[in-house]
Amino acid sequence: MTIKIGIDYYPEQWTPEQWEKDAALMQETGVAVVRMAEFAWSRMEPTEGDYRFEWLDAAIEVFATRDMAIVLCTPSNTPPNWMTTRYPDMLPMDEQRQIIRPGVRGHRCNNSYSLRMLGSKFVEAMSQRYAKHPSVIGWQIDNEMHYQECHCDTCNRAFVTWLKKRYSSLEELNREWGTVVWSGEYSSWAEVTTPLGSSKPMNPSYLLEYKRFCSDSVGYLLGWQLDILRSNCPGQFVTHNMWQYPNSLDYYDLYKELDFVSVDYYPNELYRDYGDRFPRNGALTLDLVRGIKRRNFWVMEQLSGAQGAWMPIQRTPYPGLIRARSWQTIARGADMVVHFRWRSAAVGAEQFWLGLIDHSNVPGRRFREFAELTREVNRLGELLAGSTIVNQVAILHSHDQHTALSLQPQAEGGMHYIDNLSSMHNAFLKMGVGTDVINWTEALDGYKLVIVPSLFLLNEAAAQRLERFAARGGTVVLTNRTGVKNMRNVCEMLPLPGLLAEAAGVVVSEYDAIGNSEHRIRNAEGQTFAAKQWSDLLELRGAEPIAWYDNDFYEGVPAVTVNKLGDGEVYYIGTWPEPSYFYQLFEGIVKEKDLAPKLQLPEGVELSIRTKGEESFLFLINLTNEQREVTLDAPYRSLLTSKRSEQKMILPSLGVEILTL
């Protein structure tokens, strides 16, 4: 399928006369795909069993007759009022066992019998109606599924059933969780419940398993809908629009059976003061999304206007931002970019989460920018179709590490798993070195360098996979808080980094949770760098030190090491240095591995490469509001202008260039 631009549209909020006007303008603009019906359950089933799809038939026809493809959504995110009133088991309960009343959306227990019963009937009816419609190309299940704790009777029973599949007996559960602490042992399965009350802290093994259960419960809600859609709609794709990272769901499991990953992407970072948190997290989000199934993806909601619903209205996208961020998603693997949304809502909770056309109903600057983008993508979409991203650097991401470290913060201030992963990713981003961010259980074939942030939970399989990778010539970079626990969230009685100590050639003799206290490290050239969060005091067991602590009682103790392992090597970073140290360290490794890009990128310019056969497409995107100069290594041809580039190329504020040799 050629790369295209789409629109999110809510026909239930507008009159049929407005549909016609909107569809005509979409056709003129070059819109290829329209997504609809994700929140329209009450309009499609106003009372139980009374299915009314005629209005949706008419809306689909308005766009289909103008050659636009349709993506339909199952509306299980918004159960109607008649449903939650008649079937109260549909509503979730909080940890005090109080019902969480209907709100804006997402007001459902994922394990509810009534939700499955009524939802199955509805999805069956809807999918049968549109399974053979020539313009309906696929389905989105639900909307932005999210982790939700529920403590109702159904979830309590489901949690116990889930645990029984993971533990052979209650005795094993008691032993594995260490419930003997604080007299927490269970003598009967009837005593096991979801984590009730607000007492903290609770048993970390218990809490981790509960969060895994909650993530699996979301998969259950998705799964029964997927079964119906697969049965009734074999010729149509099925996906789900995940929320951007960080997120509390295990998307690797959630997307296993779906055709591709979709993401809702709302970057407007020019106006946000993140400090050191999530530096350029937009690129990380896209690399994470691409890594879930290790293939291209869709953007199902793309920023089109100021955001304001859950917060005060944010600033409007800077001129050029809509176009630049849309091309950024394509550069990093998106094959479809659907914009949220065509028009700002006149009613409801999201009135000020603005779309392409404001409440004036007059297309303005943002719409003109969208139209320019659509023309460009339509012109180049066929050429770029089928191109993919192939990288030789991987960063391993683990949902379980994120969850476990969130349950037990390891140091005061800023020691967050995703933040730390982001700061390492950012070093490669600044160099222009493409990285795949993949599940930590994936095979590592085809990579030369693998970055492994804090494997707090570790098992033999993961340790052996990393050891084999290094022994065969790969380079592994480990960080502190590796090997602390097993997969049950129980501390290992081993010197850190646990199962990887031999591969790293070091052991941790002591550690210091320094938090926000700034320490210094010194490299072999005598340069010093700030370091925070953590200090592992390393004893050498075959590794060579390449940086040492430069203050405190452990001045002179190794802080960063490298160990030869077979044909490769394993680095160990015992603290968390400032970004310039990561950049310098990784720059040396990528040069040694012949992975360094030939282009030197100025601050704020991203490089991504898509390839198709022997042809490569270089995307250069300036994500700052100032112009930047890029020095090229060859006379490339611009796909946007068809002109040959000069050696020094000027990218304007939020400028985009797509080059090929």
From TrEMBL:
Catalytic activity: Hydrolysis of terminal non-reducing beta-D-galactose residues in beta-D-galactosides
Entry GO terms, CC: beta-galactosidase complex
Domain Beta-galactosidase trimerisation: 391-595
EC number: 3.2.1.23
Beta-galactosidase C-terminal domain span: 604-660
Domain Glycoside hydrolase family 42 N-terminal: 8-379
Gene Ontology biological process terms, A to Z: galactose metabolic process
Annotated residues for binding of substrate: 105, 143, 310
Origin: domain of life: Bacteria
GO molecular function, one term: beta-galactosidase activity
InterPro entries reported for this sequence: Beta_galactosidase_C, Beta_galactosidase_Trimer, Class_I_gatase-like, GH, Glyco_hydro_42, Glyco_hydro_42_N, Glyco_hydro_b
Record keywords: Glycosidase, Hydrolase, Metal-binding, Zinc
Binding site for Zn(2+): 109, 150, 152, 155
Annotated active site: 144, 301
Similarity comment text for this entry: Belongs to the glycosyl hydrolase 42 family.
Name assigned to this protein: Beta-galactosidase
Species name: Paenibacillus monticola
